[in-house]
Amino acid sequence: MTDRVFLVAIQPNNNRAPNPPLGYSRDCDLSEAKQIRLVAEFHANRIRPSRIAYRLGIDIALIDALLAGEYQASFFTEQLAAAQRRRRDLRMRSSERLRGQAAYEIRVKAQRDYDASLSQP
């Protein structure tokens, strides 16, 4: 329901078909804050917006607005930064099971990916 409120607030005369098509999509019964957190989590893991919409049932217009910074920009940025830190920390912890060069390479790659994600707009 929050998706419809969002669409009405942004585009009152919207005749666009939902993405993905109705036969393939799921209804999303999550709160708006939970949807934003999940979009940030999926985006931190480099999942395409259309795939996020398909997997979670979140309207693609909301996802595009979040990624463009047009809607809830500060909250989304905070959630995205937290998701990126969690992803880096998880990768660092997974390297603890390994020893030597393999562990070092995983830690360096995780830190490099994290630093690259911070430098992106």
Tell me which oligomeric state these chains represent: single chain
Helix content: 55-70%
Q: What would you call the structural class?
A: mainly alpha
- What is the number of strand segments? 0
Instruction: Name the average pLDDT.
Output: 78
- End-to-end Cα distance: 30 Å
Which outline best applies?
elongated
SSE topology string: HHHHHH
For the sheet with most strands, the description reads: none
> Any idea how many domains?
1
CA radius of gyration is 17 Å
> Counting H and I runs of at least 4 residues, what is the number of helices?
6
- Poorly predicted runs are 1-5
Percentage of residues in strands: under 5%
Explained architecture:
The structure is a single chain. Helix 2 (32-44) crosses helix 5 (73-95). 68% of the residues lie in helices and 0% in strands. By secondary structure, the protein is mainly alpha-helical. It has one domain (2-119). It has 6 helices and no strands. The radius of gyration is 17 Å and the shape is elongated.
Q: Which SSEs are present, and which pair or pack?
A:
Elements: H1 2-10, H2 32-44, H3 49-56, H4 60-68, H5 73-95, H6 100-119
Helix pairs in contact: 2-5, 5-6
Summarize this, please?
This protein has 6 helices and no strands. It has helices at about 1-10, 30-45, 50-55, 60-70, 75-95, 100-120.
Q: Which descriptors apply to this entry?
A:
121 residues, mainly alpha, 6 helices, 0% strand, elongated, disordered N terminus
